[in-house]
Amino acid sequence: MTAQRGAAGREEPTPAALRAATARNLQEQFPGVRVWFGEATGSWWALVPLRNGPRLLEAPTPQQLREDILSARTRG
Fold first, then answer.
1. 1 in a domain, yes or no?
2. Is 4 helix (H, G, I), strand (E, B) or coil?
3. How many Cα atoms sit within 13 Å of 71 on the Cβ side?
4. pLDDT tens-digit map of 8-58
5. pLDDT value at 1 more than 60
6. Residue-number span of the structural domain to which 68 is assigned
7. Edge-to-edge strands, sheet with 43-48
8. Do the domain assignments include residue 7?
9. What is the pTM of this model?
10. Are 34 and 27 in contact (CB under 8 A)?
């Protein structure tokens, strides 16, 4: 199920659907980067391809992960 009824009677996305949409959005911002939410860890993850090989990043929020991806790409 990807939606549930809210208080106003309209369908609202589930937390899993919101996380999936957030991951897709980050992947669209950073082509080649794989992004996911770790259910077991409760963290956001990204595999960032860099010149010296891929780097695995972990962050508590999508916003922090975005900043970390930008930083990793800058440092290269």
1. no
2. strand
3. 11
4. 667 899 999 999 999 999 999 999 999 999 999 999 999 999 999 999 999
5. no
6. 12-75
7. 34-38, 43-48, 55-59
8. no
9. 0.83
10. yes
Residue with tokens 């939606």: 3
CB atoms within 10 A of CB 47: 13
2-10: Cβ within 8 A, 24+ apart: none
Q: Which amino acid is at 54?
A: P
Write the CA distances from 17 to 2, 36, 52, integer angstroms.
Answer: 6, 12, 34
In degrees and rounded to multiples of 5, residue 40 shows phi and psi of -75, -35
Q: 6 lies in a domain? A: no
How far lies 33's CA from each of 26, 37, 39, 73, 74, in Å?
Answer: 8, 14, 19, 10, 14
Report how far residue 11's alpha carbon sits from residue 23's, in angstroms, rounded to the nearest whole number.
21
Amino acid making up residue 59: A
The whole-number pLDDT of residue 31 equals: 96
